[in-house]
Design goal:
The chain is α+β, with helices and mostly antiparallel strands. Helices cover about 20% and strands about 35% of the residues. Strand 8 and strand 9 form a beta hairpin.
């Protein structure tokens, strides 16, 4: 009787060419041509976006097939990876994992570790051995980390889908030929069931990458049907080799975890509840920085120039405002810094303008006379209290996010939920 065999692959691409999703798509084709039944949708699993070893989006692929023998599938996997990996490039260290039956709880836990933290090859080898997984690796084989995590990916809480269309080889490295007006039409017809198609702030088309990879376009959405429906609206002006619909953890905020400031470390992505400690300000380069504190410490928060109008929300914060911040933590010259992806402004401190009161007789401003109060020298009218005026804030409590062009693959757009909560 056939069993389910999981195949995970990662790190087959380089900055010069290639794409792990394309390698996975070709593997699916090869498996089907060999007569194997691919079960369900293949998985496109984004891992820790802060990983220093990533090529671009840090994606790994997992595919499930029905079989009772692992060796013939292993041969197909080896052939596809060796034929479609940039093995001459530094930092391209492919890995593949083959595992019978459903992932165990330990694999689920390993996925959460890899999507939220950094892992080592040794940790991957250990988890593979505990689960009787077969490892295939080339060069350093760092890809086994993502390959195992992709198999263990826990998509039970949330998931989305992405339709990726691939280019004919002769078009690789050239400008992608898609009618931009049709992208706007597609977005109008399907948003927010499809999302991040366009950066409405800049007008930039977001479904096409800018790298010399095999990907022509990617449409992200909440169901397989909607991404396919959206694809049919597009006017594509070059031949398409084929497309694949992936099940994915993109746009789920899987990378974020609620952390106290004292527990924050480099390369994690955090949710922090705190109070604004310092007045945000623009710096050279157009970046905005401020200090956030909780009962355990303080951290620098940053809204960098690519976040555009989002920065103008951040710069209006004041010391005492209560906020929840979401974003990646990186070690910078100023110390650990959280790169803002979203912010929940929970409450705003009241600002007041304190000034001398007006004379009740002549209407002119009184003068300060030491600690006693204020006096109009002309009318000899005295007041012990200043005039206090409440200053209206230019922002309101609520949720704010960076534009689509600055959004990471894993970041969940606010459009996907009307009741955004901590995960």
């Amino acid at each position: 009787m056939n069993k389910k065999l999981w195949i995970g692959i990662d790190d087959t691409d380089s900055k010069r060419y290639g794409c792990t999703t394309y390698t996975g798509a070709l593997l699916i084709q090869s498996l089907r041509e060999a007569g194997y039944n691919v079960v369900g949708y293949p998985r496109l699993v984004r891992l820790n976006p802060n990983c220093p070893y990533k090529t671009r989006g840090n994606a790994a692929i997992a595919i499930a097939v029905e079989t009772d023998k692992i060796e013939p599938i292993e041969d197909i996997v080896i052939k596809v990876i060796e034929s479609n990996s940039d093995l001459q490039a530094e930092g391209t260290d492919p890995g593949a994992v083959l595992l019978f039956e459903e992932p165990t709880q330990s694999l689920r836990e390993y996925y959460w570790h890899v999507v939220r933290d950094l892992s080592t090859i040794e940790e991957a080898e250990k988890i593979a051995a505990e689960n009787n997984a077969r490892l295939l690796r080339w060069k350093a084989g760092r890809g086994i980390i993502g390959a195992i995590a992709a198999i263990g990916a826990d998509l039970t809480l949330d998931k989305t889908y992405e339709l990726i269309a691939y280019r004919k080889r002769e078009y690789w490295g050239t400008i992608r030929l898609i009618d931009s007006e049709s992208v706007w039409e597609m977005d109008k017809a399907t948003y927010p069931l499809t999302f991040d198609n366009i950066d409405k702030e800049t007008g930039e088309i977001r479904i096409t990458p800018h790298t010399p990879c095999p990907v022509l376009l990617g449409i992200r959405g909440v169901t397989p049907n909607i991404v396919e429906e959206a694809y049919k609206i597009l006017k594509i002006l070059e031949p398409v080799e084929f497309y694949v619909i992936f099940e994915t953890n993109q746009a789920t905020d899987a990378h974020l975890q609620l952390i106290k400031i004292k527990d924050v470390k480099d390369s994690v992505s955090a949710i922090i509840d705190g109070v604004v400690k310092s007045k945000p300000s623009f710096t050279v380069g157009g970046h905005v920085f401020f200090k956030l504190e909780d009962e355990t410490g303080e951290i620098t928060c940053a809204a960098y120039e690519p976040t555009k109008k989002f920065r103008h929300i951040i710069v209006q914060l004041e010391p005492g405002d209560r906020v929840t911040v979401y974003g990646a933590v990186k070690k910078k010259p100023q110390g650990l810094t959280l790169n803002l992806e979203k912010i929940h402004i929970k409450s705003l401190t009241e600002l007041h303008l304190v000034r001398a009161p007006k004379c009740s007789v002549c209407g002119k401003r009184m003068e300060k006379i030491g600690r006693a109060g204020y006096m109009c020298r002309k009318c000899k009218v005295f007041s012990s209290e200043p005039e206090i005026i409440k200053i209206e804030r230019g922002i309101s409590p609520g949720l704010y996010e960076v534009p689509a062009s600055a959004r990471r693959h894993l970041s969940k757009p606010l459009a996907l939920t009307s009741n955004y909560k901590h995960r």
